[in-house]
Amino acid sequence: MLTKALIYLMFRPFLLKTERWILKKNRTAFFCRNCGYESPKWLGKCPACNEWNAFIEEEATTIGADSGYGTLQMNENPLSIDTIEANEKERVKTDILEMDRVLGGGIVEGSAVLVGGDPGIGKSTLLLQMLQKLAEKGRNVLYVSGEESARQIKLRGMRIGAESKNLLVLVETSLENILQHLKTLKPDVAVIDSIQTVFSTSMGSAPGSVGQVRETAGRLIHFAKKTGVSIFLVGHVTKEGSIAGPKVLEHMVDTVLYFEGDSGHAYRIIRGMKNRFGPSNEIGVFEMRDSGLVEVLNPSTFFLSERPEAASGSVVVPSMEGTRPILVEIQSLVSPSPLGTPRRTSIGVDSNRVSLLVAVLDRVCGLHLSSNDIFLNVAGGIRVDEPAADLGIVAAMASSFLERPIDPGTVIFGEVGLTGEVRGISQMIVRIREAARMGFNRCLLPRTLSQEITELSGIELCRVGSLGELLENLF
Fold it and tell me: Does 216 map to a domain?
């Protein structure tokens, strides 16, 4: 008879192999919260995105045949691109013009859209309003919530008028159950609110973790591509303002929409940061009311409605948001500083850009602003990032410093160089036409690239090539 020790020695290699397989199957790994990079050990700096202190430990799983992904196969053989049928007119209109504009003309079949924004800004309200519009047109839509009860959703739906029988509500957080309901109901559009609350039983980590967000979002996007169901994923944001979870999530979806705004203003802006089916950086403007979000079809009037008259330091600049021109008011306050180090505060524009323009004004134009406090603000809370606002910023600071108001019928745009030259920008004709439509009668624009622009009816074009010419024409 074989002793127990001899039996153990005979089966020891098999036991060790089985033990290693079990440990490998249930092993943990470190994932980067920013980009999702996986590492077997903790790293201070992510080698993929160079982010510091972003690694967290989670259970690592291997995607296999039983993971629920399957294969994303649309055709067996490669096809010539000229034989593939695609119609741009097949988009689904939401009947919310601002939403359709941001989406590039409507919802594309089988698309995945990620919607992010601060808590309470109106993400769920707008998406519920969108589903109601689609349900009224006879389309079957599904609203999946992992944060609210069905009664709470009903109360909010009554407030905004979302009570169609084609609008189905599901309260569920299990990914497998959600996918089963999607296969059974086959809705045209589905909203998952929010992706951080959904979890898959194939992973042992908690909902909202990097692994869970990547796993659940990946399988939902895979389902959308195979079945043609358009899916909207609501994502929470971090304290820095970016969507929580791995950064790779934004690369997986077709469209990324961000809600902007704060409780101090009634407006809400939804901005398209990425769009595979239309122009990016397009915006839609909404106003928050008791009955929900109401679209603002003329944002220029909305942002200029409370503009003061004959006040120094105020100027209007035509800004391009995607393909839409919007007139915004830039305000500046320049006052002598009682401190040793003057303050520089800018809201709505890049503070580094403001410091650069202050130095140019000081050196080129002889306006000694270095000993003054400078406060700059874009009225209404909107943010202007393009260089076309440089000339407006300079004009606002000069107007406040000299205490001379700018003609209220004047709009200004152009880029300013370090030597004080005024450089040309893109889409000048579109900006001028928007200014003329809003009743402005004078436009100061760069001399460069503007000679081909003919005089437009109702507005005078004043071309400037330097900051010296700008101040001569303003004051």
Answer: yes
Provide the Cα torsion 388, 390, 392, 395; round to 10°: -150
| Residue numbers of the domain that contains 110 | 92-296
Pair (187, 266) in one structural domain? yes
Distance of CA 49 to the CA centre of its chain: 20
pLDDT tens-digit map of 3-24: 655 555 565 566 555 555 454 4
pTM: predicted TM-score of the whole model, two decimal places: 0.77
Q: What is the CA radius of gyration of the chain?
A: 28
What does DSSP say about strands 267-275 and 255-260: parallel, antiparallel, or unpaired?
antiparallel
Q: Are residues 385 and 287 in the same domain?
A: no
For 130, half-sphere exposure in the C-beta direction (CA atoms, 13 angstrom radius) is 27
Question: pLDDT at residue 350 above 60?
Answer: yes
Residues 375 and 275 in one domain: no
Whether residue 438 lies inside any domain: the answer is yes
Residue burial 357-393, b: 16+ Cβ < 10 Å; e: rest: bbebbeebbebebeebbbbbbbbbbbebebbbbbbbb
Q: Tell me the per-residue pLDDT of 408-429, one tens digit each, with 9 for 90 and over.
A: 999 999 999 999 999 989 888 8
CA–CA distance, 115 with 259 (Å, rounded to integer): 8
The sign of the torsion formed by the CA atoms of 42, 48, 54, 56 equals negative
Domain boundary among 296, 318, 350: 296
Residue 71 lies inside a defined structural domain of this protein: no
